């Protein structure tokens, strides 16, 4: 820091896990020249680590405070976050946010507000915690064609799957442990249902391909129906089950996006990404494959990403969205299929699921772990039945990655899927 430069005055909106982590990091590094001048919170009675007089109950007061140089928004209410962030951008303010659900729903409007009003919004902390994937895409790979961007974007579900594999336990006990360790929320639906990684995939699509996706139109299947038999069966074939979010450039040049469990083998860098860690694989046309791994959640890892955005805002950095002008067409489900693994503890129910997904009866298989099915399933069928699959505890996983070459696509569509 320049000793003659005054400290950057920050208004912090939210003082939960990420807000406290960011505040702690700033306090430990006075040489950065940052000061959290004001903090806004929602609840006046919640126990906190700072004296009550440090907090304001009116976040709007921070928006109108001319003494603040920039704002950091880290609350968990997506609607309120959008109201505050959009209002700040209309004032031409600089803002850092970690709210992925808000960004996934409103990113086109937020980008427009920045262009029209002169404000700046950075949001590295919204995707994969400490991993600098957004800035890597926006700056380093801004003009290189990308074949795919995929990975494990949610540490909570990854922790549950890891513990099931380590202990041979079922889903319920592993989820309870994740909640006790603070890696899963009391209401785990957003994480376990793959809604959280869906939001992150939507955000990355804007930077990887210049496309703004509607999250409600992106297929997301979670792990609520996974059982110990599924984990054991995958392990018997040398694989692990991971929730993989992916953006893929198809042979026709269109881009697709989906988030589902996937059986991953040791040839993938995601195989060794366990517990609460995240991992991102970037497949570039000329640079080849790149792999980023780091903690995907937690106060300090995510707080460090917020800090990186704050320092970047001070330097005047803005996202370029360089690909937006030549964004490809989007093909989310139509004409696409995956080699699917399908399971349910009740064989009769599983037979009914096969009719939903238009799989023939001979798709059923039986081994020492029980009965399951494999076969090619249209993404349109998975999307159409996604709510019923979730409500009935059906577990569906991809056996392979989405192909990015015409030959692979043809073989994949014509063949019968196997677990090996």
From TrEMBL:
Give the superkingdom in one word. Bacteria
* PANTHER family the record matches: HOMOSERINE DEHYDROGENASE
Record-annotated Aspartate/homoserine dehydrogenase NAD-binding domain positions? 14-124
What pathway is this protein a component of?
Amino-acid biosynthesis; L-threonine biosynthesis; L-threonine from L-aspartate: step 3/5; Amino-acid biosynthesis; L-methionine biosynthesis via de novo pathway; L-homoserine from L-aspartate: step 3/3
Q: Please report the name of this protein according to its UniProt entry.
A: Homoserine dehydrogenase
One Pfam family recorded for the sequence: NAD_binding_3
Record bears the keyword Oxidoreductase: yes
The EC number(s) this enzyme carries = 1.1.1.3
- Per the similarity annotation, which family is this? Belongs to the homoserine dehydrogenase family.
InterPro entries per the UniProt record, alphabetical: Asp/hSer_DH_NAD-bd (IPR005106), HDH_cat (IPR001342), NAD(P)-bd_dom_sf (IPR036291)
Show the Gene3D superfamilies listed in the entry.
Dihydrodipicolinate Reductase, domain 2 (3.30.360.10), NAD(P)-binding Rossmann-like Domain (3.40.50.720)
| GO MF, one annotated term | homoserine dehydrogenase activity
* Domain Homoserine dehydrogenase catalytic, chain residue ranges per copy: 132-311
Recite the UniProt keywords alphabetically. Amino-acid biosynthesis, Methionine biosynthesis, Oxidoreductase, Threonine biosynthesis
């Amino acid at each position: 820091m320049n000793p003659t430069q005054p400290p950057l005055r920050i208004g912090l909106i939210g003082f939960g896990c990420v807000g406290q982590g960011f505040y702690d990091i700033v306090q430990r590094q006075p040489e950065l020249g940052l000061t959290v001048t004001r903090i806004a919170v929602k609840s006046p009675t919640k126990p906190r680590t700072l004296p009550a007089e440090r907090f304001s109950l009116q976040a709007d007061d921070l928006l109108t405070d001319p003494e603040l140089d920039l704002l950091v928004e880290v609350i968990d209410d997506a609607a309120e976050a959008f109201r505050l962030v959009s209002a700040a951008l209309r004032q031409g303010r600089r803002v850092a946010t970690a709210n992925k659900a808000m960004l996934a729903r409103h990113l086109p409007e937020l980008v427009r507000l920045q262009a029209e009003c002169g404000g700046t919004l950075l949001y590295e902390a919204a995707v994969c915690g400490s991993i600098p994937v957004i800035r890597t895409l926006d700056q380093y790979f801004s003009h290189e064609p990308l074949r795919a961007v995929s990975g494990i974007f949610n540490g909570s579900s990854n922790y549950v799957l890891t513990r099931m594999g380590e202990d041979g336990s079922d889903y319920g006990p592993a989820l309870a442990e994740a909640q006790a360790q603070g890696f899963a929320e009391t209401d785990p639906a957003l994480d376990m249902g793959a809604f959280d990684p869906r939001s992150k995939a939507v955000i990355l699509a804007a930077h990887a391909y210049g496309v703004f996706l509607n999250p409600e139109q992106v297929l997301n299947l979670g792990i609520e129906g996974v059982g110990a038999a599924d984990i054991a069966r995958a392990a018997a074939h040398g694989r692990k089950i991971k929730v993989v979010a992916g953006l893929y450039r198809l042979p026709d040049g269109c881009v697709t996006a989906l988030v589902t469990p996937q059986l991953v083998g040791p040839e993938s860098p995601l195989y060794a990404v366990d517990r609460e860690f995240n991992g991102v694989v970037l497949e570039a046309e000329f640079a080849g494959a790149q792999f980023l791994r780091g903690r995907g959640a937690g106060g300090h890892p995510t707080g460090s990403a917020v800090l990186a955005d704050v320092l970047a805002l001070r330097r005047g950095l803005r996202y370029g969205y360089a690909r937006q002008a030549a964004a490809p067409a989007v093909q989310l489900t139509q004409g696409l299929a995956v080699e699917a693994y399908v399971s349910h503890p009740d064989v009769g129910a599983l037979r009914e699921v096969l009719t939903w997904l238009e799989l023939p009866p001979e798709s059923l298989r039986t081994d020492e772990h029980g009965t399951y099915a494999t076969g090619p399933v249209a993404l349109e069928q998975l999307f159409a039945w996604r709510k019923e699959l979730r409500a009935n505890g059906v577990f569906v996983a991809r056996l392979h990655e989405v192909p990015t070459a015409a030959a692979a696509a043809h073989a994949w569509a014509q063949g019968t899927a196997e677990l090996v």
